[in-house]
Amino acid sequence: MDIENLKTDLKERLTEARYEHTLRVTDTAINLAETFHGPVEKAKIAALFHDYCKYDSLEEMKKIIETNSKLPNLLLSFHHELWHGPVASVQIEERYTVTDQEIKDAIFFHTTGRANMTMLDKIIFLADYIEPGRSFPGLDEVRAAAKTDLTKACYQAARNTVHFLMEKNRTVYPDSFHAYNDLNQQVFGGIINE
């Protein structure tokens, strides 16, 4: 894959701020992959593509979700902010012939997470959350954990996200709950009764 051509395409598709975010996510993903002995090249590609469809029209994304059998129609029942990752996961195959399922899954689930996340899923999910341009409550704790424990940092990010959505009385996509529960079990080793 020609990374420079992809960056040129991204510059045209994204706002300047979103393009800069994408570069920071990519740098963070590479760093996480190197730290935790993950797939560095796959992390770079998935990170570059993670917001590829961020500014596609809602009508276009809706049509793709409705007509592509690889995408669950359930997405349409939730906030459109969740659509761009799944849509990008199918668009990059059509436009760039990216067929690596691990890369496509990491892009698909980068906003919600999911149960049984792969290392690449975790890297992209976390890189998007902790990239240096972000600033919100609870972020420092996640960044600190990300230096030594990828799964714990992902758990903290999932917990914070679910909590934030519940505090705002927003619906929570099922994969986000599944990610939280699965990561909780990985970190704490099972059911905790206190």
Automatic annotation (TrEMBL):
<dbReference type="InterPro" id="IPR006674">
    <property type="entry name" value="HD_domain"/>
</dbReference>
<dbReference type="GO" id="GO:0046872">
    <property type="term" value="F:metal ion binding"/>
</dbReference>
<dbReference type="Pfam" id="PF01966">
    <property type="entry name" value="HD"/>
</dbReference>
<dbReference type="GO" id="GO:0000166">
    <property type="term" value="F:nucleotide binding"/>
</dbReference>
<keyword id="KW-0378">Hydrolase</keyword>
<keyword id="KW-0547">Nucleotide-binding</keyword>
<dbReference type="GO" id="GO:0008803">
    <property type="term" value="F:bis(5'-nucleosyl)-tetraphosphatase (symmetrical) activity"/>
</dbReference>
<feature type="domain" description="HD/PDEase">
    <location>
        <begin position="14"/>
        <end position="142"/>
    </location>
</feature>
<dbReference type="InterPro" id="IPR005249">
    <property type="entry name" value="YqeK"/>
</dbReference>
<dbReference type="InterPro" id="IPR003607">
    <property type="entry name" value="HD/PDEase_dom"/>
</dbReference>
<keyword id="KW-0479">Metal-binding</keyword>
<protein>
    <recommendedName>
        <fullName>bis(5'-nucleosyl)-tetraphosphatase (symmetrical)</fullName>
        <ecNumber>3.6.1.41</ecNumber>
    </recommendedName>
</protein>
<keyword id="KW-0408">Iron</keyword>
<dbReference type="InterPro" id="IPR051094">
    <property type="entry name" value="Diverse_Catalytic_Enzymes"/>
</dbReference>
